[in-house]
Each structure stands twice: as C-alpha cells, then as structure tokens.
Amino acid sequence: MTNGPVLIDLEDQQAARPDIAPAVIDAPDTRQGAAMQQVAAIAARRPSRLARWFWSLLLALVGFVVSLAAWDYITGLLARSPILGGIAMGLIALLLLVLLVIGLRELAAFARLRRLDSIQHKASEALTSNSLGMARDVITSLVGLYGNREDTSWGRAELQSRQSEVLDADGLLGLAETTVLAPLDARAQREVEAAARQVATVTAIVPLALADLFTALTANLRMIRRIAEIYGGRSGTLGSWRLTRSVLTHLVATGAVAVGDDLIGSVAGGGVLSKVSRRFGEGVVNGALTARVGVAAIEVCRPLPFHTSKRPSVSGLVGRALSGLFGRGGG
Q1: Is 257 within 8 Å of 289 (Cβ atoms)?
Q2: For 30, which DSSP code?
Q3: Which percentage of the chain shows pLDDT scores above 70?
Q4: In the prediction, which pLDDT does 186 show?
Q5: Under a CB-based contact definition with an 8 Å cutoff, are residues 163 and 172 in contact?
Q6: Closest C-alpha among 131, 134, 140 to residue 159
Q7: Which of 171, 235, 236, 257 has the smallest set of CB atoms within 10 Å of its CB?
Q8: What does the alpha-carbon distance between residue 257 and residue 249 come to, in Å, rounded to a whole number?
Q9: CA neighbours within 13 Å on the CB side: how many for 6?
C-alpha cells in the first residue's frame, strides 16, 4: 500500500479532448406524443352509467329550477306591470324559438351523418357481393347527396355520362371515386395537413403548460368538423362531438394513437430528430398523431370506402405538412 499519489503514464494514450467529444443529444422520445394521446383518451372515454344518470338528473333539476324561477318572475312582473311582463314573455318566446331552431339543426346534422353511414355501408356491401344493382343504387344516392354542390358538378356530369359503359360494381364505384370524390379527397387532405402543421408548430415553440393539449384538442375538433363538411356531413355541435368520439374511439381501440419509430423516421428523415430538441421531436409526434386522426376522420366521413383511390398515407401527409417547418432529414 502506497502513501503517495498514484501517477498514470498517458504517453501512449490519446489525451482527453473536450472540444472533439461527441455532443450530448437531447433526443426526443418517439414513444410519447402525450398531448395527442391525452386528447384521444379524453374524447374516447365513455362515461359510466352512473355518471350519465348523474348529469341527466342534474340538468333536469337545473332546468326545472330555472323554468320555475322564470315563471314566478314573469307572473310577478305581469302583476306589477303588464307592459314589462309582456316584453319579458316575448323575449322568452323568442329564446324558445331559437332553441327550437337549434334543436332542428342538430337533428338535421345527425340525419346527414346517418346518410353518409348508410351510403358507405351499401357501397361496402356492393363491393363485397360484386352486385351491379347495389352499386347503381349507391351511385344514385351519391349523386343525390351532392346534387346541390357546385364543386362536384363536373364530376357528377362525368359519372352520369359514363356509368352506362361500366358493367361491374368495382368499376362503377371506382369511377365515382375518381370523378366525384377525388377533388373532395384533396380538400380533406389539405385540412389534415393544416391541422398537423398547427399542432406541431405550437407544441414545438410554445413553452406554456397545457398549450399543446389545448391546441391539439381544438385543432382536431375543427379538422374533423371541416372534413365532415367537405364530404357532405355538415354537423352541429352535438353531431361534431359524437363524430369526434367515434373517430378517436376507433383509434384508441385499434392502438393507432401511438406513433412508432418507423413512422417518425419516414416523416422526419434519418438524422433530423438527433439534431433537434425534445420539444421539436414532440411536435413531430403530435403532428403525426393528428394526421392519423385526420385519416380516420376521412375514412369515417367519406361516403365510399377507399377501393380504386389510394388511402392517404400518414407519412406523406405529415411530410408535406412539416416540409420546411423542421427541415428535411437526410435519407
């Protein structure tokens, strides 16, 4: 055992060089995407029967109390001043009329969504059974659905002029896809790209807590509503929420709400994520998850299933949406 210092000979070893040491990389965890996963979990969570009873009884009680208070107020006001009481009754009548109109619009929105579901279901059956008669019924419903849409006038005219030449269900529905739905598909994909770009940008550059969650929630709700409008399923407030729940429930059930390394690699390129911060990587992940929600919304709202036309690629959508935003990765 020595009492003095220990000396190590470094003549044959390379001296320590801090200037050439590899940088410590703050690589993003591609298994995260917390904001979008929280959005999906919140929207897809189905309340328990006890919770539904609670909220239903609470709303009924509040409505009863408010109605009774309004009735007492109006009758008391009529007793004191018939003129003021009449004005108050007129305002309440107008309010009830507006509520009735809103209710009718919500019912119409649900009817439009059911119409899209019905056409899509019939088209799937026609493709499965290869029934030309069912395919022609689908074409009639599709033309009727877009009968008042100027943006589909050329496609509808082309479809009606050529459908007599097609003698099988696959070809007829494929013709409808390429003529009527092709421009609508392009518009829907642009909406998905815009939403993915917004979510990725806010996640990457805004350091505020819950900002990415709020942006992801609002951007996805708006994206799903606009996609429904593009395909003719313009929905009201309740209809939009129900449609959103159905889309996100499907994603959660199938596990498509998670983004893997393969998707991020194809979106961002081989070397990009190793050069940016964790925040930018999280932005790419949330953008990719938003694109997946958008593709699911297209499949839900589109009146015909993808058959002849190619299903939108999530990697392609995110690549176009984030092109120039985070830079291009090396291949």
Answers
A1: yes
A2: T
A3: 71
A4: 92
A5: yes
A6: 140
A7: 171
A8: 10
A9: 3
Amino acid (one-letter) located at 315? S
Mean pLDDT, residues 22-44 taken together: 50
Is residue 156 a contact partner of residue 163, using CB atoms and an 8 Å limit? no
What does the block give as tokens for 66? 């408010």
Task: For residues 255 and 142, give the distance between their C-alpha atoms in angstroms, rounded to a whole number.
Answer: 32
- Whether the CA torsion 55, 60, 63, 66 is positive or negative: it is negative
C-alpha to C-alpha distance for 79 and 158, rounded to whole angstroms: 68
pTM score of the predicted model: 0.71
- Distance (Å, whole) CA 163 – CA 42: 45
**Centroid of chain to Cα 284:** 16
End-to-end CA distance of the chain: 57
Contact 317, 266 (CB under 8 A): no
Residue 175, phi then psi, degrees to nearest 5: -65, -40
CA-only gyration radius of the chain, Å: 29
pLDDT in tens, 35-73: 555 555 555 566 677 877 888 889 889 989 988 988 888
Q: Please state, in angstroms and rounded to a whole number, the distance separating the CA atoms of residues 47 and 152.
A: 40
